[in-house]
Queue: 2 jobs
Job 1
Amino acid sequence: MIKLKYTIIAYLSGIAMLCYNCTEPVDFSQSEDLELFPVVETSLVFFEAPAPEFITQNNEDFSVSDFIEISFFNDEFVEESLIKADFVFDIENSINRAFRLDITFVDEEGTALEVFIVEVPASPNNQNRITNFVQTYEDEALERVKQSTSLEFDLMLLGGETIEEDAPGRIDVKSSAIFSLMIDTN
Amino acid sequence: MQRLFLYTMLLLVSVCFSQNKQLLYGFTEIPQALLANPGAKVSHKGYFGIPFLSHLHVNAGASGVSAFDLFADDGNDFNVKLRNVVDNLKPKDFFTATQQLELFSGGFAFGPEYNKNQYISFGLYQETDVISYFPRDLALLGLEGNAPNINRPFRLNQVNFSAEVLSVFHVGYNKRHNDKITYGIRGKLYSSIANINSTRNDGQFITENGDTNILRQTFNLDLEVQSSGIANLSEEDVANTLRKRVLLGGNLGLGVDLGFTYQIDSQWYVDASLLDFGFISHTKDVENYEVKGDFVFEGVDPFFIGETNPQSADQFWSNIEEEFEDLFEVDTTQTKYTKLRPVKLNTSLNYAFGKQKLEDCNCTSEDGGYLNRIGGQLYAIARSRGPQLALTAYYYRRLLSSLSMKATYTVDSYSFSNIGLGVSANLGGFNMYLLTDNLLQYRNIYDSQSVSLQLGFNYVFRNDK
């Protein structure tokens, strides 16, 4: 009988050890507080052109436009998670003409929702002039950007000296977009 | 029991598992010790396991992190704790999970009446085996994104996981060749119920400072996931399908366990076993997924000023979108595949001492054997990123003829302070055992990086004395 007692006590105490007094407070529901803030940076537009490329027939008001259709902002994940968008432009100009680059966010009906303008001064001595520009969208403006389905680019040379065929200098535009996201379990 | 079950389930969800059976190995009073070494010494005439209760093994482990690190109710911000965990984990850190449940088992000795030196054991058990390495770069990409990580590659070979649910039919033969040598072999027929694995990934994603634009993004993807038994598992007949698969209706494989015990002298012996040397051929309900390709993205040129054949920015962008979609397009194939089982090696050196004193003559028992044993055990398991090892020192004590215990100290990938305790008790013919490790962490189970629990009930026909 003693053996039996020993055996049972040993076995039960083993099980008891498993069941009692073996945890400190944990709270698995904390995972619901999960919030991630990744920042995604991606290349945007770029172009490079020497001065003679900007010679047109009337030579005064050179402008060129183009657009891309984008579905990025209409993606459900992006719509929910995107909390800030920065558009970064690094522009070099060594042409003796100022120019501006208009970037317009356009919706399906062709309505302009948001526009930002990068103004680049002329370079009278044909030295490289560097313009750094950042356009930031948050809150309501960002919500409008999220409605856009295409991006329009308009490049316009501003008034100034006539560009000759052998005019020195060039324009070099580089850009990127920085998207700050907030991902949570809700 | 219900509480124990609940507790076990909680463990299953809170931490993951590994396969070391340092307590069971060499604990020959427990019939299932033959599963850890088919060449172990057998000290009974036969047994049968109580169906579904003869062997339950759950073993959870995570190297480098515990559930408490993340989920402690300490008022600290969960996201800060998550960040700390990710910072502390390395790509070689892993989460593993193993669960075994014996459905039935039995064994019997045979041979000449005066020397029944051979033993057959058999059974069917179900096993779950999960391992995932920590894909640190991807975790970092999710936490931070690529913007703060310009020029840093996010490596995809860190994605490495496999999970398998299978049933194993086995028959083992054990022979005490002479006083010194005992050996055994076990044949295994695997029936894989479901398998998913992704162990041959390569490539990277990197954002660098570009030439033509501010940034250049390079995708180099070579990802593959293999699965069997999952794609066509429809909701309606799941129970029936699973039942069939448990009973050899799954993807089949073969394997073998080998083992021996060598008695050096009356007190010293060595033993070793090689388990699950085998494979499973995945031919039914196979579905594999592949993502392969290279892509470099520097941006869109909106104005092709002066070019003879100008392309609109939108055409340019459409091409990029197309290439990008192609890059991430998942190719689905039904190519059959074969996976090796994770081979396990056990070996130990043991020293027995302290003979039992007989009460009536104040002398020691001649044939009662030694009451104490100490030894060292080595365990290794082959994993896709190299072997994982564990070293154990143990002390075994027979407390009563019907009650014995084993205490272990184990050093492994999880910790340097794993103390385990196992008890095997016989009540009449009934044998029951409870083996559990990481006792030091039982004050707070969530803070332990690995937990293992084995328990079971058998009916044992003991040798006549």
Note: Residues 103 and 153 of chain A are 5 Å apart (CA to CA).
Job 2
Amino acid sequence: MAKGLFATYHPAVCMLFFLAAIGFGFSTQHPAYVALSCSMSGAYLVYLRGWRPFLRTMGMCVPLVVFVGLLNSLFNAAGATVLWQWGPFSVCAEGLCYGVAMGGMLAAVLLWFACYNEVMTEDKFTYLFGRRLPTVSLMVTMVSRWIPRMVSRGRSVHDSQEALIGGYDRSKRGMLRRGVRMATVLVGLGMEDSIQTADSMSARGYGATIRTSYARFRWHARECVVMGVLVVLIAANAVLLVADAGAFTYYPRVAAVEPSWGYATYALMLGTPFWVELERLRVPWRGSSYGKQSCTRVGAHGRE
Amino acid sequence: MGRLARVMRIAQPVVLVALPAIMLLWAWLKLPGAALVTSVCACAALVPFFVGFEKSRRRARDLMPIVVLTALAVAGRLVFAPVPAIKPIIAIVVMGGLCFGREDGFMIGALAMLVSNIFFGQGPWTPWQMFSMGLAGYLAGVMGSHGRLSRRWSIAAFGAAMALLYGFILDTWTIVGFASSAGAAGALATYAAGLATNVASAIGTVAFLVPIAHSWPRVFGRIKERYLT
């Protein structure tokens, strides 16, 4: 389970939050909103995973972000302030600003996805889509189960072939040939095995009626509150952010960043994982679901 | 098959053409918000395939080839991740589409990318990877149903084309979504940057497809004859 109270919320709330963060993140290159999205996503990722994984994620994003930033700044001559001119290519200050904003937008979305990968684990994903798409989510689960099985089967096939055939060539050609033979063996084995699984499923009534599912996630009062606030904030941003983003231009000159209420609503929306922590302030014996779990009497255990 | 499934089946080829068309139109008219709009459209493009598959009410046995081939494709992507030259995933998807039909081919490709991104990390590229890989499986199914792909080298050439198409769609999405201000020169730079990877993946696909092009249909044929009729 990912760190923080937000990850304990109903998957629908988490999903709505990430959809909003990623959707709004994708829809503007306004510098203030990009900066907000970058800092919030970075802060949440650091909170979730700590500094080192955060830096590792950043390191993986950097090539793509730099590439997109460079592309937008180097091949763009629409700006008024020309910095360098080299033959047909000219680099202008506006293009550089736009490139930085575009790179920042991409970085923010990638960071939000990194947070998504932490919070929205596979079980939550299949829980959300399991009722709408029961067959597909069953297949996702089965594939996840089959991958380690394939790998371990592959290992035993490899071992037995090594024992029977002995030392083989480690050239590229030999590796390819082995990989292909392995895949062929695995496909045949897997198909035969899977038919047994299917028969066992049918024998237990798969497809006989609509599937029901075990609900691991409950919808409490706190979910209603957070969902309501989130919906209001999303609606506010849909008006304020979209208006600000539409009014802001990079060409021919970069417009001034005007103060706006949109920054506040955007920060509040992106800060949902942080402000839900306010729930910890609730008095535990009033029936807070979190308090019951976490308020273990450490002192008492220590004495026992 | 219900009415919804039939509607979805008709929508599938429409969507396959419509998504690239919308993407190119957006870039051509230089409309704003390309990153968001194209991403939403890519997600929407997956709907007819997933809902159509859902409503086609398969028996448990009919799901199994998809599950096994998807798992093998993902395991292959994981096992061969450090060796960029070997790309079993497109080869497996193409063989799956060829032998089990266009809808199953799409599902193998789309699910393989969805599940492998659980390991490699989901990102804004996920719907595009699902769409492009699914397209490779779907087209393989179409070609297979017309009996066009029976010779070893035609299958290999088709696989190479699909690997290039996959790279081409993803590169185009990068350009339309994030570099539309860079114009034609930026687009060329992006394609040039992706060229080496795409060609390597095409060669890797051919190297994997040539030896399996005849043996796998035999294996699948036997399975189909024994269990799936």
Note: Residues 32 and 259 of chain A are 9 Å apart (CA to CA).
